[in-house]
């Protein structure tokens, strides 16, 4: 082996020089540190550096005159080995350290790349080779306790390793061994000797299981370990009686590093974050025994056999490196324990740096050359780096177990929850079922109740239907009864109708009576008018010479016409009466006839009555007109009498032209009705008829008073009636009766009786004026008031009764009746006033009794006289005009007339009155009165 090494060194002195120079990185012996992760990182040549030790004290003296045996060209990483003074050989290395090179730079260039590679998961080896005393231990094992700059590779490597590992996850174990004469000793436990080497048959990994493994917790503990190891090495060598330079020291550092998941990868290159990865790498720092041959020393006293044994490991290493350098198919790794320990470092999977140490002394030129050649051969050794990475299945398993446990726990909880939920659901289902069953039960009972209820309702319905049938029957029977009742009611109705009919008959009778009376009146009037006409004719013939303008012929014509009309009237009345009788006869036989026919007949009758009433009114109006025309003739005569200053009683007597009856009317004009009453009168007797006036039966009283009124219209009867107490009875009726008809008819009868002068005194004597005044104040019916006013007006025409009449309220009663405003009533009032004024005037002019002013003025009649002097109704106007003229006849009244506004009315009459005679009378009167003249003068009215 020695010769092989030498020959090898000589054979290739510069072989690697050129190849090494092409490397890009000069600062490091290693290839780029961070190679890609993978099982094999490819080839990595063993890096070799040379370090020259400075001359020591001995050499400085002994070799003072000699230059160093080597010449370094560090910048070229070359070393020149002097052969002699003129010749040298140049060798290229990965690095060349001069004697001035610092420990730090040597570490960084030689060892640091390997340390970093180990920390990345590769095995690594840093080994020092060289002659004893050249500085191997200095370079590797210097502790630097005195000067930190002296710290060797071991200390610095551990510093870096400890700095780069995490004490919580990663582990760093150290063994420190010594190999001497093929025996491994544990430097940390010196008693352990001859420790065997173990090899993994599968992987071929070499281990020393018997060696002490100390886990490093911190850097300081490592220093202690090195110190212990160094001390033990010295002690062991002393014990063996050898120098430490004869043994190999091997520091084994085991690193287990956990790689972060994201940095790991599986074989397929895909990420596997679930499997943790650990890297188990190993760093060997080997301080080899001196490379000089043992036998060379010769002073140690060892046998040749011993010497062979001491050199065995180093010789075997040389052989292996040679084999590797020459790519020999056989590398005798197993020849020594050292080569077995370094099996992975040379030709294996580790990154390996070799530092060769040489001394400067030219005296050791042979040893230096041998070291250089060893280095040169080592540079040819190619290693195949392999990442020492594995999945942490145990950890993964633990984690998975933990996960599994967690899942089991969760699963158990879930199962429990599911079971609970199922039980709850089951309970709820049971509850729901029971509720459904309950509800079904309720439903069934409700249905039962409903069916019961329905049958009850059906029963009720049947009952109601039966009752309804009963009701229908009842209704039918009621209807029957109703029909029967209706039949009864019809007869009742008929009775009512009969009563009604009787009533109608009575009314008709009344109406007929009225007509009869009116006809009678008309006849009487006609008689009166005839008489008047005759009288007028007489007077006219007497006055003909002086009165040129009296329309005698005109009056005569009118009277003729009037007579004709009256005849016509009478004819009509007779027809009516005939019709009435026919109707009465019809009604007598119509009890069986229908209600409709009765009604129709009644309606027809009413219609006819209405027509008759209209006709009657029309006739009355005509008669009124004729009366006024007659009155005018009468007045003409009167005016003439006044003008003549005549004092004699006129042929007209006290009666006004408006008297209803004339006492001298004879019964030759009495119609059939009157004849009937006369017959009644004869047969029944006046006394009997008058007694009926006091009958309890109101109807009887009504009929009786009507009969009496009719009788009273006859002058012949008037005296008889009064003598028989009829006047008294009539006055009682007038005063006591509530019945308006009775009062009206009674008043009419009294008025008739009042036409008779003798009767007038009797009426007054029996308090008639008081009763008439009372009726005048109380009655509202205009016809009643007309009768009352007519009666009083008749009484007013009696000169002898004037004072009494006035004292008993006759004038005031007369004036009170103007409240009705009915023209018929007003006309009677005006007639009464005119009568009264005329009588006053006559009394004064005849006897000169009365000297005081008019009783009319005394009783306040003047304002009404003045107000109505120009009344639009001609009958009223004429009466008032005449009354004013009569009043104005006496000077005693003049003052009142002048102040009361009557003067102006007289002036108006004297100017405007359509009747010339009245106009002249008024004129005369005004001229005769000095009072009037003075007043007119005072007011500058020219007259
Ligand atoms: P070896 O282990 O190779 O037998 P050592 O490391 O024991 O050699 O060194 C021998 C002596 O040389 C020691 O006293 C050491 O201090 C010294 N020495 C070695 N190398 C150097 C250096 N580079 N600088 C200074 N002194 C050194
Ligand atoms: Mg040493």
Characterise the protein shown here.
The chain is α+β, with helices and mostly antiparallel strands and 943 residues long. It is 61% helix and 10% strand. It has 33 helices and 17 strands. The strands form four sheets. Strands 2, 6, 7, 8, 9, 12, 13, 14, 15 and 17 form a ten-stranded mixed beta sheet that branches. Strands 3-4-5 form a three-stranded antiparallel beta sheet. Strand 8 (171-180) and strand 9 (183-186) form a beta hairpin. Helix 1 (2-11) runs parallel beside helix 9, helix 1 packs across helix 11 and helix 17 packs parallel to helix 20. The longest helix is centred in the middle third of the chain and has 151 residues, at 393-543. The termini are far apart. Mean pLDDT is 80; it is low at 1-28, 30-39, 269-273, 544-552, 589-593 and 643-670. Magnesium ion is lined by residues 136-137, 245.
Beta-strand fraction estimate: 5-15%
Helix-strand makeup class: alpha+beta
Give a quick account of the main beta sheet: strands, pairing sense, barrel closure. 10 strands, mixed
Radius of gyration: 92 Å
Low-pLDDT segments, ≥5 res: 1-28, 30-39, 269-273, 544-552, 589-593, 643-670
Gross geometry? rod-shaped
Number of helices: 33
Q: What level of helicity do the residues show?
A: 55-70%
Distance between the termini: 207 Å
Task: Name the bound molecules.
Answer: adenosine-5'-diphosphate, magnesium ion
**Total DSSP E strands:** 17
Mean pLDDT: 80
Name the descriptors.
binds magnesium ion; ten-stranded mixed sheet; disordered N terminus; alpha+beta; 943 residues; binds adenosine-5'-diphosphate; single chain; three-stranded antiparallel sheet; 61% helix; 17 strands
């Amino acid at each position: 082996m020695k010769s092989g090494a030498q020959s090898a060194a000589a054979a290739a002195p510069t072989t690697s020089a050129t190849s090494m120079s092409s490397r890009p990185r000069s600062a490091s012996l290693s290839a780029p540190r961070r190679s890609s992760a993978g099982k094999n990182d490819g080839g990595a040549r063993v890096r070799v550096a040379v370090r020259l030790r400075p001359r020591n004290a001995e050499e400085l003296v002994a070799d003072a005159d000699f230059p160093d045996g080597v010449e370094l060209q560090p910048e070229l990483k070359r070393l020149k080995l002097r052969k002699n003074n003129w010749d040298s050989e140049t060798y290229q290395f990965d690095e060349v350290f001069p004697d001035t090179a610092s420990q730090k730079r040597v570490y960084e260039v030689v060892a640091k790349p390997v340390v970093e590679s180990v920390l990345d998961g590769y095995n690594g080896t840093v080994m020092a080779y060289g002659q004893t005393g050249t500085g191997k231990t200095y370079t590797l094992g210097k502790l630097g306790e005195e000067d930190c700059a002296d710290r060797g590779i071991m200390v610095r490597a551990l510093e870096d390793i400890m700095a780069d590992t995490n004490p919580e996850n990663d582990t760093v174990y150290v063994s420190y061994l010594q190999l001497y004469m093929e025996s491994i000793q544990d430097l940390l436990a010196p008693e352990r000797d001859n420790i065997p080497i173990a090899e993994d048959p599968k992987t071929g990994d070499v281990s020393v299981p018997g060696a002490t493994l100390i886990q490093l917790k911190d850097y300081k503990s490592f220093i202690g370990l090195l110190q212990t190891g160094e001390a033990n090495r010295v002690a062991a060598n002393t014990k063996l009686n050898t120098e430490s330079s004869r043994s190999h020291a091997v520091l084994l550092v085991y690193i287990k590093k956990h790689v972060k998941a994201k940095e790991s990868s599986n074989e397929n290159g895909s990420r596997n974050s679930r499997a943790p990865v650990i890297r188990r790498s190993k760093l060997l720092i080997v301080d080899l025994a001196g490379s000089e041959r043992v036998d060379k020393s010769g002073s140690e006293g060892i046998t040749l056999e011993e010497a062979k044994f001491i050199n065995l490991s180093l010789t075997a290493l040389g052989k292996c490196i040679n084999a590797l350098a020459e790519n020999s198919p056989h590398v005798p790794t197993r020849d020594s324990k050292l080569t077995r320990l370094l099996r992975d470092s040379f030709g294996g999977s580790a990154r390996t740096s070799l530092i060769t140490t040489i001394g400067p002394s030219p005296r050791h030129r042979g040893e230096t050359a041998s070291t250089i050649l060893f280095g040169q051969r080592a540079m040819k050794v190619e290693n195949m780096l392999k990442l020492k990475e594995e999945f942490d299945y145990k950890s993964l398993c633990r984690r998975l177990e933990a996960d599994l446990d967690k899942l089991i726990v969760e699963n158990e909880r879930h199962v429990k929850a599911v079971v609970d939920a199922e039980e709850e659901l089951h309970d709820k289902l049971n509850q729901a079922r029971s509720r459904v069953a309950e509800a079904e039960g309720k439903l069934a009972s409700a249905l039962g109740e409903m069916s019961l209820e329905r049958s009850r309702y059906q029963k009720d319905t049947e009952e109601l239907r039966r009752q309804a049938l009963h009701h229908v029957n009842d209704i039918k029977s009621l209807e029957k009864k109703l029909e029967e009742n209706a039949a009864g009611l019809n007869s009742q109705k008929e009775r009512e109708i009969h009563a009604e009919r009787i009533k109608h008959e009575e009314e008709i009778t009344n109406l007929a009576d009225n007509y009869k009376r009116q006809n009678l009146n008309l006849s009487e009037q006609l008689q009166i008018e005839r008489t008047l006409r005759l009288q007028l004719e007489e007077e006219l013939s007497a006055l003909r010479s002086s009165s040129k303008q009296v329309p005698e012929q005109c009056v005569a014509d009118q009277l003729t016409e009037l007579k004709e009309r009256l005849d016509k009237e009478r004819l009509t009345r007779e027809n009516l009466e005939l019709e009435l009788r026919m109707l009465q006869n019809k009604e007598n036989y119509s009890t069986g006839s229908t209600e409709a026919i009765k009604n129709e007949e009644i309606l027809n009758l009413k219609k006819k009555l209405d027509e008759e009433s209209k006709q009657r009114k029309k006739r009355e109006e005509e008669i009124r007109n004729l009366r006024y025309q007659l009155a005018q003739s009468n007045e003409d005569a009167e005016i003439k009498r006044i003008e003549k200053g005549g004092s004699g009683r006129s042929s007209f007597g006290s009666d006004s032209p408006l008297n209803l009856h004339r006492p001298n009317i004879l019964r030759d004009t009495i119609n059939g009705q009157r004849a009937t009453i006369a017959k009644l009168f004869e047969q029944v007797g006046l006394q009997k008829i008058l007694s009926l006036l006091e009958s309890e039966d109101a109807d009887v009283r009504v009929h009786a008073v009507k009969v009496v009124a009719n009788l009273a219209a006859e002058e012949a009867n008037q005296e008889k009636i009064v003598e028989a107490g009829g006047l008294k009875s009539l006055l009682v009726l007038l005063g006591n009766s509530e019945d308006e008809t009775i009062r009206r008819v009674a008043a009419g009868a009294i008025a008739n009786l009042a036409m008779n002068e003798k009767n007038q005194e009797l009426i007054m004597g029996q308090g008639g004026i008081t009763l008439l005044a009372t009726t005048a104040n109380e009655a509202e019916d205009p016809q009643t008031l007309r009768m009352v006013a007519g009666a009083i007006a008749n009484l007013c025409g009696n000169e002898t009764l004037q004072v009494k009449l006035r004292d008993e309220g006759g004038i005031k009663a007369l004036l009170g009746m103007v409240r009705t405003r009915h023209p018929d009533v007003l006309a009677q009032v005006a007639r009464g006033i005119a009568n009264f004024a005329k009588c006053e005037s006559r009394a004064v002019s005849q006897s000169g009794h009365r000297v005081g002013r008019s009783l009319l003025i005394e009783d306040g009649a003047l304002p009404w006289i003045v107000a109505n002097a120009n009344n639009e109704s001609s009958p009223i106007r004429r009466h008032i005009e005449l009354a004013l003229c009569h009043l104005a006849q006496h000077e005693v009244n003049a003052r009142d007339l002048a102040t009361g506004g009557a003067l102006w009315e007289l002036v108006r009459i004297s100017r405007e009155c359509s009747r010339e005679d009245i106009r002249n009378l008024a004129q005369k009167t005004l001229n005769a009165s000095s009072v009037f003249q003075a007043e007119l003068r005072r007011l500058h009215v020219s007259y």
